[in-house]
Amino acid sequence: MIEFIPKNVNRVFVYFHSAGVNSEELSPVLELLKDRLPNTYILALDGFISGSPTINRGAFYGESEEKYWFMFPMQDASSQESFIVHKAQLGATLLTAAAYTNNLIDQFKNRFNLGAEKVFLCGFQHGSCLVLATAMMRQKDPLSAIFLIQPYIMEALYLDSELRQEKTKVYGIENEFMRNKTYSWVQIYTEIEMNKIGIPIESIITKEGDEHITNEIVESMCSLIIRES
After folding, report:
1. 3-state secondary structure 48-90
2. CATH annotation of 2-228
3. Could you tell me what percentage of the chain is helix, strand and coil, using 3-state DSSP and rounding each to the nearest 5?
4. Is 173 helix (H, G, I), strand (E, B) or coil?
5. How far apart are CA 118 and CA 143, in angstroms?
6. How many CB atoms lie under 10 A from the CB of residue 206?
7. 159-195, pLDDT tens digit by residue?
8. Which residues lie below 8 Å from residue 25, measured CB to CB, with a gap of 6+?
9. Beta strands in the chain, from DSSP E residues, in sequence order
């Protein structure tokens, strides 16, 4: 876990790491975040599932270097066909995890005496799925904005038949490498597909980097957080 508590807190930033890693994913850009977002409580938790995000493949609750936020309710968690067939089951899994995260948001509100509009969530890949689910099920007291780094549409297919939050701004941030890699896998661009199911997403594409969070991505996100708060 990474936690930074400034003397005075006027906003909250929570980071959800990608699959198979842990909160240390945020470490390379932590100082930049602290510099760009003064008076911001910063938290990066570790996912609660270890070993594997797929049922019957060695998943367990406990300490491990490899962490995940939610389970995939199918053995085939890579093909488009499998995600389409299991979209309702995956939606149930994500909304269960998102209920925990929404409870966490309410704790931050009480702890720091802030409104939900001052709480900003950011997720990377696997973590972005949880962030989106969290915001979309928050029908009352919505977040002002969330940030999805290299989000995938497959995990969000269940939202085409859900009651969705419409006030939260959704930003998708990725670099050109990430965008091209996602397209080579599923032959779609996430923001286009999300718009089709009624989730307006503003796409921000940076130039530099590979499949890791970069200073350029963080700079873009921080500018938006400052504007939204």
Report:
1. CEECCCECCCCCEECCCCCEECCCECCCCCCCHHHHHHCHHHH
2. 3.40.50.1820
3. 45, 20, 35
4. strand
5. 8
6. 19
7. 998 888 889 999 999 999 999 999 998 888 999 999 9
8. 15, 17, 18, 44, 124, 212, 213
9. 2-4, 11-16, 40-44, 49-50, 60-61, 67-68, 119-124, 145-149, 169-175, 201-206
User: Which tokens sit at 24?
Assistant: 């240390």
pLDDT in tens, 61-77: 888 889 999 999 998 88
Q: Which of 170, 174, 122, 123 lies closest to 144, judged by CA?
A: 170
What predicted TM-score, i.e. pTM, was given to this entire model? 0.95
Pairwise CA distance, residues 196 & 203, whole Å? 14
How far, CA to CA in Å, does 131 sit from each of 36, 123, 173, 212?
A: 22, 6, 13, 18
- R_g of the chain, CA atoms, integer Å: 17
Q: How far apart are CA 115 and CA 179, in angstroms?
A: 33
Q: How buried is residue 180: exposed, middle or buried, by Cβ count under 10 Å (0-12/13-18/19+)?
A: exposed
Question: Phi, psi (5° rounding) for residue 113?
Answer: 55, 50
Task: Tell me how far apart the 2 most distant CA atoms of the chain are, in Å.
Answer: 50
Residue boundaries of the structural domains of the chain:
2-228
The stretches in the chain having pLDDT less than 70 are: none
Q: Which amino acid belongs to residue 210? A: D
